[in-house]
């Protein structure tokens, strides 16, 4: 992956210097590739922690959740093969020699089979570097978040079937211990994925910038079909995981809020029935509302309400930056 990254940097350098591509578009592409390298280095340094986090995931015991994870992983794994094939067909159908020229550093290649083989292999490697690897990290992050939300949901279901009269001090202490265990798991989640989630989000966000630039600058050029195929593939595989990063972690604060409501309702029912509080200190601890929001380096809060803000920011500033290029 490091060799692919170095080769990518060299190709973008040639694209800007030799072929006259916009350096801002190339920089946005390079930033997204760099995010994957940062993810590789970070995961290699904390491999045991991530492995332990995945092994403790509760979705492994749920057949439906496990099937969804397997389907998502299979789609992500198949995307580099599909992308390389689509790009190869686009270059052939559109008679785009610029794509072949770009991948061979401007060196003419006479053998057609060898030319197609190199184009397919390089497209596969570039796409695996980003966004495939980044999306695997996002999938792992979302899976662990979903696992923690399942733990909270299971605790909610246990409390819901418990009658208010049976909600005694022993049950309250057990609930307090379970909630403390959940918060400990959430702290580990934040410690493991805070930097990774921020880098992955920044990489996909930078890719959205690059795609916007590519649509405006190159989608109507002589090599339009190649650029359009690249834009469609990257837009699907980059924007969908970005949305899931804000959608799935939202289930954690939602389930925590539901848990707090159930506990508060149990105490209200006991109080309305004339039951005196047996242990005020336990009641005080249980009634403390602790809402946990997953964040990336405390800079990005992963909540559903921020999805439109992210894409609105990409669109606004992307068009603002490109306006200078259009004027020039």
From TrEMBL:
Top-level lineage group: Eukaryota
Record's keyword annotation contains Transmembrane: yes
Keyword terms of this UniProt record: Membrane, Signal, Transmembrane, Transmembrane helix
Keyword Iron appears in the UniProt entry: no
Membrane spanning stretches: 69-90, 102-118, 124-146, 189-212, 232-248, 305-324
Signal sequence interval, chain numbering: 1-20
Organism: Araneus ventricosus (Orbweaver spider)
The protein, known as: Gustatory receptor
């Amino acid at each position: 992956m490091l060799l692919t990254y170095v080769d990518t940097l060299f190709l973008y350098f040639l694209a800007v210097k030799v072929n006259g591509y916009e350096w801002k578009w190339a920089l946005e592409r390079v930033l997204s590739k760099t995010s994957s390298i940062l993810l590789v280095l970070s995961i290699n340094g904390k491999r045991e922690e991530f492995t332990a986090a995945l092994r403790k995931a509760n979705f492994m015991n749920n057949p439906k959740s496990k099937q969804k994870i397997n389907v998502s992983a299979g789609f992500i794994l198949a995307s580099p093969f599909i992308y390389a094939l689509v790009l190869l067909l686009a270059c052939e159908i559109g008679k785009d020699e610029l794509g072949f020229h770009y991948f061979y550093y401007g060196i003419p290649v006479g053998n057609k089979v060898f030319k197609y083989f190199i184009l397919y292999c390089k497209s596969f490697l570039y796409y695996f570097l980003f966004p495939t690897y980044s999306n695997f990290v996002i999938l792992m992050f979302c899976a662990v978040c979903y696992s923690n939300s399942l733990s909270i949901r299971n605790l909610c279901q246990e409390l819901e079937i418990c009658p208010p009269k049976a909600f005694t001090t022993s049950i309250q202490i057990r609930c307090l211990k379970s909630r403390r265990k959940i918060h400990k798991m959430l702290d580990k989640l934040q410690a493991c994925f805070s930097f990774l989630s921020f880098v992955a989000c920044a990489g996909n966000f930078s890719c959205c910038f690059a795609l916007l630039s590519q649509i405006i600058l190159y989608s109507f050029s002589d090599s339009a079909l190649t650029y359009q195929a690249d834009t469609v593939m990257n837009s699907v595989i980059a924007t969908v995981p970005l949305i899931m990063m804000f959608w799935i972690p939202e289930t954690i604060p939602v389930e925590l809020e539901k848990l707090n409501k159930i506990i508060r309702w149990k105490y209200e029912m006991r109080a309305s029935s004339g039951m005196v509080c047996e242990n005020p200190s336990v009641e005080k601890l249980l009634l403390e509302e602790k809402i946990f929001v997953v964040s990336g380096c405390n800079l990005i809060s992963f909540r559903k309400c921020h999805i439109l803000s992210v894409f609105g920011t990409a669109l606004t500033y992307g068009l603002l930056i490109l306006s200078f290029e259009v004027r020039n």
